[in-house]
Amino acid sequence: MSTIDEATLNTNYLTATKGWKSWAFTLDHKRIGLMYLVFVLAAFLAGGIFALLVRTELMSHGPTIVSGPTYNKLFTLHGAIMVFLFIIPSIPASLGNFILPIQLGAKDVAFPKLNLLSFYVYLCGATLTLLSIAHGSVDTGWTFYTPYSLQDPEAATKVLYMTCGVFVLGFSSILTGLNFLVSIHKLRAPGLTWTRLPLFIWGMYATSIMQVLATPVLAITLLMLVFERVFGLGIFDPKLGGDPILFQHFFWFYSHPAVYIMIVPGMAVVSELFATFSRRVIFGYFAVAMSSLGLALLGFIVWAHHMFTSGMSEFANMLFSALTFLVAIPSGVKVFNWTATLYKGSISFAPPMLYALAFLFLFTIGGLTGLFLGTLNTDIHLHDTYFVVAHFHYVMMGGTVIGFIGGLLYWWPKMTGKMYHFGGATVGAWLTFIGFNVTFLTQFVLGSRGMPRRYYDYLPEFESLHRVSTIGSYILASGLFTTAAVLIHSLAKGRAAGRNPWGSVALEWKTQTPPVFQNFEQTPIITKGPYDYHLASDEELVEDLYAPSAAE
Amino acid sequence: MPVALSAYAEDVDKVYYLIFWLSVVLFVGIIAAAAYFAIAGKRKPGVRAEPTGHHMILELGWTVAPVFILAYLFWVGWKGYLDMSMVPPNALEVRGRAFQWGWDFEYPNGVHSKELKAPLGKPVKMILSSNDVLHAFFVPQFRIKRDTVPGIYSTTWFEANKLGDADIFCAEYCGGRGEGDAAVGHWAMIGKVKIMPAADFDKFLKEGNGPKEGETVPDWGKRLYADKNCAGCHSTDGAVGAGPSWKGLFGRSEAMSDDTAIVADENYIRESILEPQAHIVKGFGPVMPSYKGILQDKEIDAIISYMKTLK
């Protein structure tokens, strides 16, 4: 791309170069981020439709819309798509790719070509996953537990397609993590010391460490599954002398850190939102930054808490229960610090802030219900029931997805140059929040009463709660569709957004909207922290929601 | 929480409600504070935010104080779990076999049942195993759950302390097969525990397996057909399920998946029950679990005599 001249570098990145090739072969982190966003949202839509089908089936006792084996495929697809194609890449690959280099004051990520490669690797992985659907789809659950996933030779072929897809997706995740780590170390603008890094960057840093270190374990595990299937090596299949519990250890050694790969970015986004919309420094900045790293570390040593009923030794159960409780400490630190950040703030209830507040509410429930599951004797009863389903949806959806939408609404004007309708976005936020709680609070009750998960049908006494939960999921869907409509409308009809619509002092709002091709016309020199509102002039805090030309 | 029917269920519930109320207090505290701060701090023109960013004692407080609460929760959970793990030495041993998709329970004298019978006030040690894939033995009213792993025995125990019925669920996903009404799977592994006075339990053991009084052998076979989950895959009216229908099957020459032909006689039926994968009728998948250890010789004979009646 040496042919790009100075003028192009300093024009809007969306229009700086033209033609489909300028997108397909772009090395610009902003365009890659945007392309990721499109595919990640498509995956969210697909996973969401599967979720609605699952909930509709569960609306009534007995068969409702699909047969049992089809239901098994639906919840598998919901889980696999949401985890591997949506949540894991959501914040880092789309919002992170776009915002991280700008927050660093850099022109791009450290390895732009690797960044593009990671995007195409993601597409390859997604295609392989889709192939498994074309072949009749997998019904193993997203965890691919052996020996069921190896049992039927015909079905196992589809499992191979999907595991290969997930294997490939893992590489995309590793490449993004690697790129971010190097960028954060090497590309910080002059004056941007580690203690002046925005908390979003700290969160991405912790996430990237986990992506780089944990994802290879998933790759190894899936490769062993493939070898077992193709060459008949006895690793996990008891018929060949293997140990199915070993698979669970391997699987969770990746998938538990993966849970933190999912939630830490959500926490990273809401830290930005709390600061901007309270107009004050994040309370306990250092503690919040370190708690992200603490979670990254603890994420590696608690995997076996998914296996308390699997027949592990009592000693192992004791150890993992004790370690699991440690997770509550950094999580608690974050919640307390966000709450304290609101204290004597100057608080705006703009749509992104509603999501930050929803995050605080939902994540606190998600975290506290984790206590029931870390405690050994209550976990024995609650394990593999709807209680667990509700718990991880509160953390993954109430946490990460709510953080993702909040971040999307926050950075949307910067990314697209368009401002959306506040009223519509507020209605969307409330519907999502109410629908979410109706859907999943009921599932805590179902689970504590003994309703096991992954059941196509259930005892009649569970019907009324299932019905409430299904209705909640429709409200939730209506909230998400409202938000989507508001954003699509803004692209077509929205007014051009100003440079700094939220009156933030953070670096990404100092550049043009949308940013120029090389992010900043001149490399910025950083002299203040990202949340130093008390040092800002009144002029810096003006909310220019709309670009001046559009005012009249 | 569901009704408590086992000795340690109350301990589990105590811990559950302890965490529940602790969580409610913390949650209400945090959300009330956040809501108050947010509303009181609503943006007003000309008013700047207070720039406090750090308070050492406060921050240390909310980092260290939870450690004590968490340590206590860990301790009560661990203690309760130990009680659930240590089987009393005088416990009655019952074997539980899980298979796709059902349960079979075997008592010390060799008697089998589909429904788990439990004597009131006597500890029962469950020795669990699986014939095929992972399952989990879950009885919500007892607050117990244990995975069954192929190739490994796992154990757990309970002592029923009230009369009544409890549910058995499979809590580890184990798949599903078939179409329409013939579909079976994970969700269909629902069973019952019948808690009975010790005297009734002894009577049940004595009566043992075999035809009931006045029941003919083919009728006994018909009962086994329903009880042992044959009905999930094999119809008796000619409808094709996950396996061949039994109607007119006996004595017929069947084409096999390896293109040989075998007459479905006593030997073939017996082999298909004990080693289902040895010879599979063309057009069907290798999905049937082995009934080795679940059906005894007399029972297999009874099933065959029932099949003979299905012309």
Topology, pairings included?
The complex is a heterodimer of chains A (552) and B (311).
Chain A: H1 6-9, H2 20-24, H3 29-57, H4 68-104, H5 112-134, H6 148-151, H7 153-186, H8 199-231, H9 244-278, H10 285-298, H11 314-342, H12 351-374, H13 376-382, H14 386-416, E1 418-419, H15 422-448, H16 463-493, E2 495-496
Helix pairs in contact in A: 3-4, 3-5, 3-16, 4-7, 4-8, 4-9, 4-14, 5-7, 7-8, 8-9, 8-10, 9-10, 9-11, 9-12, 9-14, 10-11, 11-12, 12-14, 12-15, 14-15, 15-16
Chain B: H1 9-40, H2 56-85, E1 92-99, E2 102-106, E3 112-113, E4 116-119, E5 123-130, E6 135-139, E7 144-148, E8 154-159, E9 164-170, E10 176-177, E11 184-185, E12 191-196, H3 198-207, H4 217-227, E13 253-255, E14 261-263, H5 266-274, H6 297-308
Parallel strand pairs in B: 1-5, 4-12
Antiparallel strand pairs in B: 1-2, 2-3, 5-8, 6-7, 6-9, 9-12, 10-11, 13-14
Helix pairs in contact in B: 1-2, 4-6
Task: Walk me through this protein's architecture.
The complex is a heterodimer of chains A (552) and B (311). Chain A is mostly helical. Chain A has one domain (32-550): Cytochrome c oxidase-like, subunit I domain (Cytochrome C Oxidase, Chain A, Up-down Bundle). Helix content of chain A is 66%, strand content 1%. Chain A is built from 16 helices and 2 strands. Chain A has helices at residues 6-9, 20-24, 29-57, 68-104, 112-134, 148-151, 153-186, 199-231, 244-278, 285-298, 314-342, 351-374, 376-382, 386-416, 422-448, 463-493, and strands at 418-419, 495-496. In chain A, strands 1-2 form a two-stranded antiparallel ribbon. In chain A, helix 4 packs across helix 8 and helix 10 runs antiparallel to helix 11. The longest helix of chain A is centred in the first third of the chain and has 37 residues, at 68-104. Chain B has 3 domains: 9-85, Helix Hairpins; 92-207, Cupredoxins -  blue copper proteins (Immunoglobulin-like); 217-308, Cytochrome c-like domain (Cytochrome Bc1 Complex, Chain D, domain 2). Chain B has helices spanning 9-40, 56-85, 198-207, 217-227, 266-274, 297-308, and strands at 92-99, 102-106, 112-113, 116-119, 123-130, 135-139, 144-148, 154-159, 164-170, 176-177, 184-185, 191-196, 253-255, 261-263. A 5-stranded mixed beta sheet of chain B has the order 3-2-1-5-8, with no helix packed on it. In chain B, a hairpin with a 5-residue loop joins strand 13 (253-255) and strand 14 (261-263).
